[in-house]
Amino acid sequence: MKREKWKKIPKNQILIGGLVGILLLVIAIPIDGGKKKTQEISTQQTMSEGESQEGVYEKKLERRLTEVLEKIDGVGKVEVMITLKDNGESVVEKDVTTSSQNTQEGEGSSARNTAENQSQEETVFSGQQGSGQQPFISKEVTPQIEGILVVAEGGGNSVVIKNISDAVLALFPVEAHKIKVVKMNL
Length: 186
Known about the structure:
Largest sheet: 3 strands, mixed
Order of helices and strands: HHHHEEEEEEEEHE
Number of strands: 9
Helix content: 25-40%
């Protein structure tokens, strides 16, 4: 009896119904779902660690400096703290359009020429057109270092302190008075 119902429906209506169903599925599938998911996961990992972008940058510098300083003779175990002056800067690419217009006012020798310049800036976006546009970053400036504290087992020896200070000065653009080396409390 159920077969008889299906036989009464024209085949072109069944085909149209199937095509409409496929069209609805295609519309429901997000276009850039993979990209957004990856971005969300990395953002969640950063936020779950309770650190901002600058905090991640600080920790990376501290870890690398610790690894290097521990290899210096007489230094021993080391802990490093780096403070940043700012958050760094991202320079956004801009399209600049300049137009000039010359006009002449008056007659004869008393005529006056005037020039008028206009410029217009527009932000350059990367990626596809749409609501999720990201500005094109032409340059990233890393945060500036404010000061460095090094706590080392060998921090009581003046030669070791000098070696640590020299190494830090060679690696970072920071003034000597903003580097402090102290002995670790054992």
